[in-house]
Amino acid sequence: MANTITQSSYYKALTGVGGAVILLGIALYFASIKTLYDLPVIMMLIGAWMTIQNGYHVMRPIAHAPDIVLNARTLNNVLTNYAIIIAMVVLVLIICFLQPRFMQIRVVLDIMTQSSTKLIIALGICFTLIIAGCDLSAGRIVGLAAVISTSMLQTADYGNRFFPELAQLPLFIPILVAVCICMMFGALNGFLVAQYEMHPFIATLATSVIVYGSCSLYFDLPPNNSQPIGGVRPDFAALGQTKFFQGGGFPGVSILIPIAATITVIIWFVLNKTVFGKNVYALGGNREAAVVAGVNVYATNLFIFVLAAGLYGIAGVLEAARTAGATNQYGMGYELDAIAACVVGGVSLMGGIATVSGIIAGVFVFTIITYGLQFISVSPMWQQVIKGIIIATAVAIDMGKYRKKN
Q: Distances from the Cα of 58 to the Cαs of 17, 23, 61, 70, in angstroms?
């Protein structure tokens, strides 16, 4: 007979594990083992997160939550659902063994910084995946936002200004212009999908080509003539390069991290607490049922792509600020990484299933793997092979769950 435990006991156990991880981290910290670098501090942070997250469920249990059955089937489901994350943890342990310097707070902050703009793009593209679509224009829209914003935010004394006679505009105006133009292309995506019931793959592929061509024409305007855009204003560069709490040996927290965190909270609220979010899930889960329930399919489709393009635009602006420059090649391939991160994070390609927490995990999985493999000097060619295996495995798992459901 299978053993069962209550939801309350389950979360209490996880809270206890979190507390144990904190205590172990404290013990290792005072042991002062140099080869562990910042591992004790990282363990304390992970333990604190586990304790707070699961402790919340202990304090506010879900009413009438079913008991958890402990058997072979449950174990198989856990291994299936978290296979990619388990593989990532194993890889991180191997990397830490091969190169202990990977266990540093600086590395963790670098990974979080690199994940920030990727997360914003993934949050945008997840809306299109929830309705069983996709958005192949995401990367090119990121590049368009980078080029437009940077072209209008150069210093007055820069020798190769994109607009030599342009006055020094307030920071928010070029950013707003860039994001709004991106949203116009998002509206084109939405219009093609909603008005003509065109498959998002084809609609966004067409828009991607249009965006890239338009961006390249803009980038080639004289006197720039397709030269990389540089000489950005300090206030614009600060939007992507500022670091908080820097000093005393601490590398500092990039401004991109709180920006991405804020956008993540907003998107979580939109998806889970608004009528629009519920309509998106309804449309992806069962289009016919959504229509019967009174969901405005046209408006929902249109707004999905407009919102997604707005997020791509914000990500493009932040990328340009972080690198202090831009070219028309910015953003190339970003949409594929974002789709892959969403799928790894549990967003179903069949539509109707997605969680913000899963998307965050998916983005971090790819960033950690890429950063970690570079850290131990694995060939970029092998990195691509490993990334492809991860994507194929994640999609296979998703399709397997879909077949079981049906």
A: 14, 20, 6, 20
From 130, 124, 144, 94, select the one nearest 337 (Cα to Cα): 124
Question: Within 3-104, where are the H helices?
Answer: 7-31, 39-59, 72-81, 83-98
pLDDT given at position 2: 55
φ/ψ (deg, to 5) at 38: -100, 15
Give residue 60's region: left, alpha or beta (phi > 0; psi -120 to 50): beta
Encode burial over 222-250: b for 16+ CB neighbours within 10 A, e otherwise. eebeeeebbbbbeebbebbeebeeeeeee
Per-residue three-class SS string for 41-66: HHHHHHHHHHHHHHHHHHHCCCCCCC
- Candidate from 121-125, 291-295, 365-369, 389-393 with smallest mean pLDDT: 389-393
Sign of CA pseudo-dihedral 125, 131, 134, 140:
negative
- What average pLDDT does range 375-395 have in this prediction? 84
CA distances from 174 to 153, 236, 356 (A): 7, 10, 30
3 SS3 class? strand
The β-bridge partners of 37 are none
Split at pLDDT 50, 70, 90, the class of 60 is confident
Question: CA-to-CA distance for 336 and 129, rounded, in angstroms?
Answer: 12
Kindly report, residue by residue over 100-143, the tens digit of the pLDDT. Answer: 999 899 999 999 999 999 999 999 999 999 999 999 999 999 99
3-state secondary structure of 68: strand
Task: Say if residue 223 is preceded by a cis peptide, omega within 30 of 0.
Answer: yes
Residue with tokens 């970029």: 380
Cβ count near 56 (within 10 Å): 12
Given CA atoms 197, 198, 201, 203 in this order, what sign does their dihedral have?
A: negative
Taking the chain, what is the end-to-end CA distance rounded to the nearest angstrom? 28
